[in-house]
Amino acid sequence: MGCFGVRGVVLDESVLFGVDDESGNSVLRPGLEYLLRKLQFSGLRTSLLCGTSLADSKVSCIGKITALYPVGHFNFFHDIKAAWGDITDNILYLVSKTNGNQNLNLSSCSWTVTVLEAGGTSLNQHNAMSISRLEELPLTICRINKKAMCGHTVTVGYIMKSSRETDFAKRGAFPMYPSQNGLIFLPLTFNLPISSQIQEADIILHKATDEITSVELNGPISCPRRICFSDGFQELLRYTEAHPDCRLLDSINSIHPIIDRLAIQKILQGLQDLKTEKDYSIRAPRFLMVDNFSDPELAKMLEESSLSFPYIVKPQVACGVADAHSMAIAFKVEDFRNLAVPLPAVIQEYVNHSSTIYKFYVLGEKVFYATKKSTPNADILIKLSEQNGVQPLLFDSLKSLPIATDSQSPNEEACMKSGTLDLELATDAAAWLRNRLGLTIIGFDVVIQEGTRDHVIVDVNYLPSFKEVPDIVAIPAFWDSIKKKFESIKTKAQHRCICVPLY
């Protein structure tokens, strides 16, 4: 292996197939598609090395692989050398301990050999490493690249649901080869012992809310004991607690308020501490917490909370459970009768905002935003309700948010009433919110109230996708935020060691 680590991966045909099915047809080896998904956007070149005399069922399987994943397909060693001449000394070759490619003379090349299935190799390579499952290969690549870089890298283990990982990875966010600021990304899986993986990581990037299994509602959700995570994630947390050398990018305690809409509302009320000489402010929406929509005092409670119709009604649990995004817009007190929104719930003021929302993304010290269409003003919503028999508008905020159409978009006069975005004010709020929550990567949504020009933060979330920000600026900022947080954690740990009194 050259001095620059793994730049390309060659998968021998012997690792592609498992035991034939009952009809004698070839089937893909378990774990192969997992591995190909991880390699797909890893920044590493990937190719198959197959002989020329394959059974039809194997040819069919290989065709499906090359159709789904951006992998090359070569028949001979010299073909790879010709195509990958610029990285020929930085190739990892994965082969099974039996039935390896007989046409390949490994003694004549500088490839790093990794053998699938422990217990020896028929290739008789004294420097060959071994793995027992295909899912282990990313870990092997990580170890090789760390060693090649002589410790001048930071390994970021990451765990999140597959669809979210793909959204990040296809934008180049998770390279297995060091990024421009020295980050190596290691995908973690609960299908392997978590301890052996985390040992290689310096810091863990996680979307903890993807691992929530249940949330108890008998008390403040933000209490750690109220939130239950998957067994695998709990094991990860126990390991990081016992091994301070490996830290979470953001602590679980810091994420708890994001899960609880009541907690985040109370935090946002602290925005009043941001001093401004302008005649408008950035603030939280007015709200009321309710446990029962049938409370006979509900109308009085709404009035005392300075709320007026319409209202937007949201579950207290903000994420991690199936119905966290089941919401409603209510137009009268009677709409709360049998309202299909989970309880407890937060009733927020509905802000007329000219159907425009500003989505802010905070990546460490960098702040980005994008402008998007939003829900119509109250008068349009009332008309929509009348079409529905004067019923509350029910929607899923991730799937069926009632976005304003072009005909419902505000005219120039309405836009002037709401005013333009005060970027300086919003940026100050971003810094305040990041420090208040103690989180590295957050998103929040701002609407500008017509008439008052108040900037109202209506939602806050952790580790957003920031897809609206161009990758060319967003991904380096993403990497930079992780690197700086790691360095900050490391510096604080060293300072604590220095400050320990000697007796």
Characterise the protein shown here:
Among the domains are: 8-149, HAD superfamily/HAD-like (Rossmann fold, 3-Layer(aba) Sandwich); 261-469, ATP-grasp fold, B domain (D-amino Acid Aminotransferase, Chain A, domain 1, 2-Layer Sandwich). Mean pLDDT is 88; it is low at 118-126. The longest helix is centred in the C-terminal third of the chain and has 28 residues, at 471-498. β18 and β19 (366-373) form a beta hairpin. The chain is elongated. By secondary structure, it is α/β, with parallel strands linked by helices. The protein contains 14 helices and 22 strands. One of its GO terms (cellular component) is cytoplasm. Keywords: ATP-binding, Kinase, Magnesium, Metal-binding, Nucleotide-binding, Transferase. This is inositol-1,3,4-trisphosphate 5/6-kinase. Its cofactor is Mg(2+).
**Reported CATH architecture of the domain at 261-469:** 2-Layer Sandwich
3D shape:
elongated
Please give the number of β-strands: 22
Please report the first level of CATH classification, the CATH class of the domain at 261-469: Alpha Beta
N-C termini distance = 50 Å
Radius of gyration: 27 Å
> In CATH terms, what is the fold-level topology of the domain at 261-469?
D-amino Acid Aminotransferase, Chain A, domain 1
CATH fourth-tier homologous superfamily of the domain at 261-469: ATP-grasp fold, B domain
Strand order of the largest sheet: 3-2-1-4-5-6
Strand content: 15-25%
Largest sheet: 6 strands, parallel
Secondary structure: helix percent: 25-40%
